[in-house]
Amino acid sequence: MESNTLHSVLLVLVMALVSFLLRAFPFIVFTGKKETPKFVVYLGKVLPYAIIGMLVIYCVKDISFAAAKDFLPYIIAGTVVVILHVWRRNTLLSIIAGTLSYMALVQFVF
Amino acid sequence: MNRKSDIKKAFISTIPVFAGYIALGFGFGVLLSTEGFGALWALFMSITMFGGSMQYAAVDFLADAISLAEAAVMTLIINARHLFYGISLVDKYKGSGLKKIYMIHALTDETYSLVSSDVMPKGIKDKQFYYFIVSLLDHCYWIMGCTLGAVFGTNVTFNSEGIDFVLTALFLTIFVEQWLSSKDHASAIIGVVCAVLCTALFHENMLIPSMILILLSLVVLRYVRRGKLDGK
């Protein structure tokens, strides 16, 4: 194997290993034998709410408010998702309708 | 028979991830191939690394041939939020044996959003099996997207502009669903407020400060509420 190729393979393996260890960390620390500490149980219960909220913001963090065409598609499609979901509570419907309206807005309207 | 219905439910839950991963994976494959790394590399990376932002960053790392130590540090920084994802799953994944190691490997933002909350399809027979199939399907979509992108590269153009909104819609829908199915909105509000604050302060590097601020806020919240309860 050429040394460049070998280095690339090793790079990928290192990045894969570190990614795995980060994901595995809580499972290693709070091993199945002992009972999970109460505090961790609390965090485990409340974290998903906060993390999903954070991921929503992460997805829209690059929105620019300089011109209407930069932010209106997000606002409109986001509103479609929220209203549709409150109304029908159908996950797949909300996501598909929101995405199609966003695509239509950026491709044809703005 | 039971398993078949769980697989079907997992497939339906992951359809939005399918659309998002094919689109984002394709973009990654195209980018990778323009740097001279072909389909085999896309396959190799999507199987072993399995992470969106991480793999996009890795294209530059490979092109610049950075050192192994630098790569390790960069991975730590980009994926640091994953340190905390498992906390919600320690009990859910308990006792699932070898499957657990794979599910840990396949724990992306999108998979986390599907398995961590209690927002799940009704009538699942074997929850751990369902989590496993969700992880496996998401991984397969990602591998397909990345590899197809590297194979077809820039030869294929289809007007998919805006399809990446599907992952925003996925998170937003789960956020709304969690909001509607819970009476206590403190944690959801904490997540949004911390993320907005950290975006204003740190821009694209908002994830790590957000995670830290969220953890601190949740600790304070518990302390404050406990004090109230004890005072009664």
Reconstruct the topology from this structure.
The complex is a heterodimer of chains A (110) and B (232).
Chain A (H helix, E strand, L loop, with lengths): L2 H27 L8 H22 L8 H21 L2 H19 L1
Helix pairs in contact in A: 3-4
Chain B lengths: L1 H12 L1 H20 L4 H10 L3 H13 L3 H11 L3 H4 L12 H8 L3 H7 L11 H26 L12 H16 L5 H17 L4 H25 L1
What features would you describe in this structure?
The complex is a heterodimer of chains A (110) and B (232). Chain A has a domain at 64-110. Chain A has four helices and no strands. Chain A has helices at residues 3-29, 38-59, 68-88, 91-109. By secondary structure, chain B is mainly alpha-helical. Chain B folds into two domains: 2-165, no CATH class; 183-232, no CATH class. In chain B, α1 packs across α9 and α2 (15-34) runs parallel beside α9 (127-152). In chain B, 46% of the residues are buried. The chains are: A mainly alpha (110), B mainly alpha (232).
Straight-line distance between termini of chain B: 52 Å
Specify the number of helices of chain B.
12
H and E string of chain B: HHHHHHHHHHHH
Question: Which structural class is indicated by helix and strand composition of chain A?
Answer: mainly alpha
Question: What is the chain-wise order of helices and strands of chain A?
Answer: HHHH
Number of helices of chain A: 4
Low-pLDDT windows of residues of chain A: none
For the report, how would you describe the main beta sheet of chain A?
none
**Percent helix range of chain B:** over 70%
Mean pLDDT of chain B: 90
Q: How would a textbook summarize the main sheet of chain B?
A: none
In percent terms, what proportion of residues of chain A is strand?
A: under 5%
* Beta-strand content bin of chain B: under 5%
Mean pLDDT of chain A, to the nearest integer, reads 91
- Find the count of extended strands of chain B (DSSP E, 2+ residues): 0
